[in-house]
């Protein structure tokens, strides 16, 4: 089986690539390393073909796509909501235009992967009060990131229904775990918390900490991605979370317990466009037959153990 993973040197991408390579897939990665790191793929470097390249270079992408993949996992994106608010045009090119160009090339070149999987986001739901969020709940994309994810997701499904491609889109809730890059102010919150715990640095909490998220461990995400892409169903959107709503401050407390350390907190104003409450309805994914194995507490404990092993190396 041949798989292409765009954004495959990033946090979720590298966890996926390692899993696919270890399952015997022939994996190709395109990543410009704007957030990804080659060291994330160190353990599988002999098994994976790696292109350090921008997915917005359409001619290059067409040549890669001509290799005729069985599975395409489209993860390349500027993954930060806050960054998209700062740089709406640049992030639009990656988060939307590159996706449509890929779909269009598959159409005109008559390429038919077994599955084209696009990674959308819970950010599309915005701040409407209905909880939990179902795949057919009202959307309210409040940021350029959310607008682009929603538009790309719709295009993904439309290319399925209109042109017969096997496509699927997943709306991840908040993912955490090994290899999430903490070194940008826009990095995922638990990677920043981890870095602060390790280095005894102060963590800036934006807002009052009562904002809620449905955090999910990356190993469950990877299993869900493979499960969904290998399933018979196409042209569908799936929420991927645990269906558990936790206040950020409570997750920090759970993580303090798992790590045996105290986090130094500094409170600041909430970020512009920040979502107040987030919770997935995961009925559709459950009905497809998927069951997560880790869960929040076990995931936090394993993430901390992994961090300590890295730290002590
Ligand atoms: P990440 O930043 O670690 O991964 C994205 C990867 O894409 C990075 O390796 C980056 O270098 C690469 N990339 C960015 N722009 C590129 C370009 N122009 N050309 C080639 N590569 C490029 O983030 P992640 O958390 O692993 O996110 C993976 C996907 O999942 C993204 O599409 C993100 O929007 C989506 N997502 C993530 C979360 C989460 O909680 N982490 C939640 C919902 C959706
Ligand atoms: C995250 C993902 C986004 C995804 C969305 C789906 C990242 C970087 N963002 O966005 O790709 O689509 O989930 O739900 O992975 N916070 C702090 N201090 C910090 C950093 C963050 O208090 O130093 C707060 C934020 O203000 C926010 C919460 O933590 O309230 C989560 O922030 P963040 O990890 O950036 O995630 P989302 O914005 O939810």
Counted by DSSP, the helix tally is 10
Instruction: Give the termini separation.
Output: 34 Å
Residues in helices, as a percent range: 40-55%
Q: Which molecules other than protein and nucleic acid are bound? A: nicotinamide-adenine-dinucleotide, uridine-diphosphate-N-acetylglucosamine
SSE-based structural type: alpha/beta
Q: Extract low-pLDDT stretches.
A: none
H/E series, N to C?
A: EHEEHEHHEHEEHEEEHEEHEHH
Give the integer mean of the pLDDT values: 97
From the alpha carbons, calculate the radius of gyration and give it in angstroms: 19 Å
What key attributes describe this structure?
single chain, 313 residues, alpha/beta, 7-stranded parallel beta sheet, two-stranded parallel sheet, 40% helix, 19% strand, globular, binds nicotinamide-adenine-dinucleotide, binds uridine-diphosphate-N-acetylglucosamine
How would you characterize the overall build of this protein?
This protein has 313 residues and is an alpha/beta fold. 40% of the residues lie in helices and 19% in strands. It has ten helices and 13 strands. It has helices spanning 11-22, 58-65, 81-86, 88-108, 144-163, 189-199, 218-230, 248-259, 283-288, 296-312, and strands at 2-6, 26-31, 48-52, 71-74, 115-121, 167-172, 174-176, 202-206, 212-213, 215-217, 236-240, 246-247, 264-268. The strands form four sheets. The chain has a seven-stranded parallel beta sheet with strand order 3-2-1-4-5-6-11, with helices on both faces. The mean pLDDT is 97. Bound molecules: nicotinamide-adenine-dinucleotide (NAD) and uridine-diphosphate-N-acetylglucosamine.
């Amino acid at each position: 089986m041949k798989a292409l993973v765009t954004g495959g040197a990033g946090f979720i991408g590298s966890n996926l690539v390692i899993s696919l390579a270890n399952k015997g897939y022939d994996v190709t990665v395109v990543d410009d390393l704007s957030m990804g790191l080659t060291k994330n793929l160190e353990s599988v470097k002999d098994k994976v073909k790696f292109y350090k390249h921008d997915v917005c270079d359409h001619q290059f992408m067409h040549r890669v796509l001509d290799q005729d993949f069985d599975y395409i996992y489209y993860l390349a994106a500027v993954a930060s909501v806050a960054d998209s608010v700062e740089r709406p045009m640049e992030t639009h090119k990656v988060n939307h235009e590159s996706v449509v160009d890929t779909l269009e090339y598959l159409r005109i070149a008559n390429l038919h992967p077994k599955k084209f999987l696009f990674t959308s986001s819970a950010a599309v739901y915005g701040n409407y009060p209905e909880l939990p969020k179902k795949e057919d709940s009202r959307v309210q994309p409040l940021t350029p990131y959310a607008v682009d994810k929603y538009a790309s997701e719709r295009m993904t499904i439309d290319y399925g229904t209109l042109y017969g491609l096997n496509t699927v889109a997943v709306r991840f809730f908040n993912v955490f775990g090994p290899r999430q890059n903490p070194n940008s102010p826009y990095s995922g919150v638990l990677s920043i918390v981890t870095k602060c715990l390790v280095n005894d640095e102060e963590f800036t909490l934006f807002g009052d900490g009562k904002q809620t998220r449905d955090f999910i461990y990356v190993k469950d995400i990877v299993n869900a991605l493979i499960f969904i892409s290998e399933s018979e169903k196409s042209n569908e959107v799936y929420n991927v979370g645990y269906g558990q709503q936790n206040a950020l401050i409570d997750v920090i407390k759970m993580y303090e317990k798992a790590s045996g350390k105290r986090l130094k907190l500094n409170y600041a104003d909430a970020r512009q466009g920040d979502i107040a409450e987030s919770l997935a309805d995961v009925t559709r994914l459950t009905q497809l037959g998927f069951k997560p194995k880790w869960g929040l507490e076990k995931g936090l404990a394993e993430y901390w153990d992994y961090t300590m092993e890295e730290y002590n190396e």
